Amino acid sequence: MTAHDLPAGRHFALTWGIATPYGGMTTALLERSRMFAEAGTPVDVLTLDPRPAPLGPEFDDLATIGVRVRNLYDWARSGDIPPSPNARPAPPALRAGEDGTITDEVDGVVVRRVRLGDDGRPRDIDHLRADGSIALSERRPAGGGRLLVACDAAGSPVRSWRRRYDLYSDWLDSLVGGAEAFVIVDSKTVAPFAADYRRPHVTVVHVIHGSHRGSTPGSVRASRQPVFSRLDDFDAVAFATEAQRRDVRALVGPRPFLTTVAHPVSPLPASALPAEADRTAAAVIARLEPIKRVDDALDAVMQVHHDPGPSIRLDVYGTGSRADELAERAAGDPAIRFHGHTDDPASALAAASVLLLTSRSEAFGLVLVEAMAAGCLPIAYDIAYGPADLIRDGENGWLVPDGDVDALAEAIRAAARLSPERRAALRAQARATAAEYSAERIRRRWASVLRTAQRRRRLHRRTQPLVREARRAARAVLRRVRAVVRRARKLARRAR
């Protein structure tokens, strides 16, 4: 074993769920898991979503190399939960159509019965096996709290929990056993649980995929605050860029182990790239949501189309809540085309001359490196953290002032005016930048980070008893001091 090898042990990637189609965070998680597996380290991807989406054939391919997706509720359905003598009785089953109870199906199979509360959110849930038997019941008792009861196929209770976190912990414990293990947590939804999951042989690393910046300088956005208040509970916290790591360190101080690990990208071979004369279009690959500001890209391209000269086609790939609105906005421009989700972004980027990225915020901007790997030149708003870290303006792409549609349009014009020789030079620089994020380099970086986090965890385990003893001694001294002060005050009152 060398220092570049991933450390020995079980390796897990923990997230809430895998949406279809999945976005940048899930792409990064799966590519990292693939990279580990191809280096001989299998990875179990663990999901907690009670309604997991059907997984496509690409997951069968991942399974063949050692990346397996496992869901918490499949554990409940399996009958492998170890029984407990203190299991609470199973509650009465929910009946579809009664008391506001509805059924939830996946691929035509009923997986849950759900009773909605007055707020329209799930209140009571029965998780079902394929034969209709109840695998796990969740109830909110009248007195408050939560009760979860796992049942065998005959309906007898085998184990119960008062919190979902306890159920999650038991599942992880069953997977880890007593082996050395590494859990990389990608989802901010799951991170608060992972911060609580402390085992002497398990190293827990949280990967921050999004920007943490709040609406005011130096603040943390509300969705990140529960985790940012306890970053030291992780053995390591990884960011995709040094700039974000540096900013977070300024906020939380030096104690947490904050580090950087970028996302891997595989460059396309030169033989797979089209001829320069065929790369005339611009592309957008993004969720069609407000945070991506795709309307700015549309407006910039339409502005360019008002100029004399050849028209620049814009191909938009993605789905989201603004899809209809954006299509209507560009309806009068036949050179703007919407393609929906693409399962092959590399080919879409290889066919384009430039990529437009107009997000309000990024933590890395994986699509920027994917574009560079395909020789597609990025034109991006100058935002933290991805574009400013990846793009050298005028050398491997263009940075334009944040929110400046006129500047975005001018950058598109500048790219179109380049000579073939200059454009080829920029594409070569872009591909050289992408090569810095090869799987081999990123895997070596992960090996270093996981080993450092493992050492930190072991040191913490050795020093924690000393810390606890020091705290007990300090409390004892404080109690004695307080007792002396009380006696002194009594004597002073008697003297008066």
TrEMBL record:
This is Glycosyl transferase family 1 domain-containing protein. The lineage of its organism: Bacteria, Bacillati, Actinomycetota, Actinomycetes, Micrococcales. Residues 82-92 have a biased composition (Pro residues). SUPFAM superfamilies: UDP-Glycosyltransferase/glycogen phosphorylase. Residues 80-101 are annotated as: Disordered. Signal peptide: none annotated. One of its GO terms (molecular function) is glycosyltransferase activity. InterPro entries: Glyco_trans_1. It comes from the Bacteria. The keyword Transferase applies. Residues 278-431 form the Glycosyl transferase family domain. Keywords: Transferase. The keyword Transferase applies.
